[in-house]
Amino acid sequence: MKKFNLLLLAFVPFHLFCQDPLMISAGLQQPYVHNPASFGAFNKFSFNAAGSFQDQNVIIGYTTESTLNMEYGGVINTKNNTRIPFGIGLNGFYQNYYQRIAFNANIPFAYHLDFDDTKLSFGLAPGIHYLKMGQPWIGTGDPEIEKLFFDLSAGFMWSGENFYAGLSTTHFTGPEVPELPFSVIDRNIHAHGGYRFKIKEHSIYPVSSIAVSIRQRSRAQLMVYYMTPRDIFSVGLGYCTDRIYSGTVGIQLKGIRANYYLNYMPFFSGIYFFKHQVKLSYTLPFKDKSTGNSK
Length: 295
Hints:
Elements: E1 4-10, E2 43-56, E3 63-77, E4 83-97, E5 100-106, E6 109-114, E7 118-134, E8 144-160, E9 163-170, E10 188-195, E11 197-199, E12 202-213, E13 221-227, E14 233-240, E15 244-253, E16 256-266, E17 272-285
Parallel strand pairs: 1-12
Antiparallel strand pairs: 1-13, 2-3, 2-17, 3-4, 4-5, 4-6, 5-7, 6-7, 7-8, 8-9, 9-10, 10-12, 11-12, 13-14, 14-15, 15-16, 16-17
C-alpha cells in the first residue's frame, strides 16, 4: 500500500560552542548519536555517515563537523530459552571550529526489554574525548592546549511501531578545563522522540530533538519533510531560531539513503553563513517492525 509521509523534525538545536554536534538530519528512526539506548532498537544493522561544512564571509575561519556510526541489533538465546535483545555499535564525531578541534569516539551498548508491542531500552557508551584549542579560546598565555579525557554517555528510550521517546546525557564525567573558560566539557541533556499519525494511506510523523547544555547555548529548529511513496524521494524546509533557514532533498533506494541539507544564516550588515551537510546511510530493519525484534 502506497504511503505519503510528512515528517516534522522539531526543535533540533545548533550549539555554537558545544561539544555535541547535532546534525539537522538527526532523529529519523536511526541511531541517535547522543543516546546509546537507540543502538539496535530500530534496525538489525545500519551504517550512517554525515558531514557538514560551514563557510562564512567574515574572516573567522570555517567550521566542519562530521558524525559516523554503525549499529548491530541482535538477540542472545540462553540455555533456559531466555531471550536477551541487545544492541552494540561504534560511534564518533569530529569538529573543527577556528582553532578548536574536538574528537569523540565511543562504543554504545544497549539492552532492550521487549513487551507485547513496545520496547524499553537502556544504554551506556564509554569512550574518549579529545580537545585541542588555540588562541583566542585559551584564557592563559599558552599558544595551544591539548586534553584527552575518559568520556561516558548514558540514556534510555521507549519505542513502538508508531512512536519513540528517549532521554540521555553526554559527558557524564564532566571534566573541567580551567585553561579554557569558554569550552568546558559540559554535560548535555538530550531529549528526542517522534510519533507517526496514520491517516488512511498517509502518515504524519512529528520528530523532535532537544538538547539542554548546562552552561552553553542551544537553539531550536523546525523542519518539515515530505516523502513520496516508499520514501524514495524527500524534500524539506525548516526554520531555526536566530533566523536560520534550512532545506533538504533526498533519495532512497534499497535501504541506501542520501540527503543534502543547506542552512542559510544571515547575521548582520550583510554578514551571513552557509552550512552544507551531506548524509549517507544504509539500513537493514528488523522483520518485526512493531517492536523492532527479529523473529
